[in-house]
Amino acid sequence: MSELFDQLEFVEDPLYERIINDLLEQQYSVIDNFFTDDEVVLLRNSLMAKYEEEQFKKAAIGNKFDEQIIKSIRGDFVLWIDEQKANAAETRFFHKINHMTHYLNKTCFLGILHKEFHYAVYPEGTFYKRHLDTFQNDDRRKLSFVCYLNDEYWKNENGGELVIYQEKNGVEAAKSLYPLPGRVVIFESQLLEHEVKTVLAAERYSITGWLKTR
Ligand SMILES: O=C(O)CCC(=O)C(=O)O
Ligand SMILES: [Fe+2]
Q1: pLDDT value at position 134?
Q2: In this predicted model, what pLDDT tens digit does every residue of 18-73 receive, in sequence order?
Q3: Residue 115 near residue 97, CB atoms below 8 Å
Q4: Which of 12, 65, 185, 190 is least crowded, fewest Cβ atoms below 10 Å from its Cβ?
Q5: What is the CB-side half-sphere exposure of residue 35 using CA atoms within 13 A?
Q6: Dist. CA 132 → ligand 2 center (Å)
Q7: Distance between CA 44 and CA 37 in Å, rounded?
Q8: Does 139 have pLDDT greater than 90?
Q9: What is the radius of gyration, based on Cα positions, of the chain?
């Protein structure tokens, strides 16, 4: 009975439908203004406060690699976000994520049961070499989600673009996406190789996360 009511209440959401179509057609979706200007400011302030309190750690890539090798692969600093201890900004963030996840599970039977998100800071001169988000042997990662928290003065000359690699008709195509405030990029974690180009003369702020099965 409750299922019947669920169906009656179901309202198609044009934004989520676009994301689903994009994922089916091209394995990634770019949504500008997924987060409002206010939400971006609140999240950036939250990130910066924690960064200044030195809560961030150098990002790792599994435990087989020493610091020098890690540095040649990625140079960002990260801080995992605990939903149970979320502040006001993070609560709003998770509300949007959970709403979208619920819709995806319901309409696409994605079976997303878990999620993990971290803040990331890329200081000047850092990058993240081309990779697949499942390289740590974690095939539970289904969708990767990146949201940019830079301010409105971010310029293309700052670099730090996300480049997504795809094969089209046997030829590799590279799509560059600038880390503009409020912009979200969602992509198939197990299918799309990508990289973060070197950040020039700026600090690059974001939240990255994964929607996971099992
Ligand atoms: O920040 C980005 O644009 C992508 C980050 C990324 O690829 C990762 O953390 O795995
Ligand atoms: Fe990645």
Answers
A1: 87
A2: 999 999 999 999 999 999 999 999 999 999 999 999 999 999 876 666 777 788 89
A3: yes
A4: 12
A5: 32
A6: 6
A7: 10
A8: no
A9: 17
Whether the pTM exceeds 0.80: the reply is yes
Determine whether the shortest distance from the Cβ of 74 to ligand 1 is under 6 A: no
Q: Which of 128, 130, 164, 203 has most ligand 1 atoms within 8 Å of its beta carbon, as the pocket-test mutant?
A: 128
Ligand 2 mean position, distance from CA 162 (Å): 9
Architecture of domain 2-213: Sandwich (2.60)
Asked if residue 208 has its Cβ within 6 Å of ligand 1, the reply is yes
Which tokens sit at 37?
A: 């200007």
- 169 HSE (CA, 13 A, CB side): 0
Q: Could you give the count of Cα atoms lying within 13 Å of 13 in the half-sphere of its Cβ?
A: 14
**What was the pLDDT predicted at 4?**
62
What DSSP designation does 197 have?
P
Decide: 208 and 133 in contact? Cβ < 8 Å: no
Nearest CA to ligand 1 atom 9: 208
Domain ranges of the chain: 2-213
The reply to whether ligand 1 has any atom less than 6 angstroms from the CB of 42 is no
- List, for residues 74-98, the tens digit of each pLDDT value: 999 999 999 999 999 999 999 999 9
Ligand 1 and 199: CB distance under 6 A: no
How confident is the model over 100-119, as pLDDT tens digits? 999 999 999 889 999 999 99
- Please list, residue by residue across 46-74, b when 16 or more beta carbons sit within 10 angstroms of its beta carbon and e when fewer do: bbeebbeeeebeebeeeeeeeeeeeeeeb
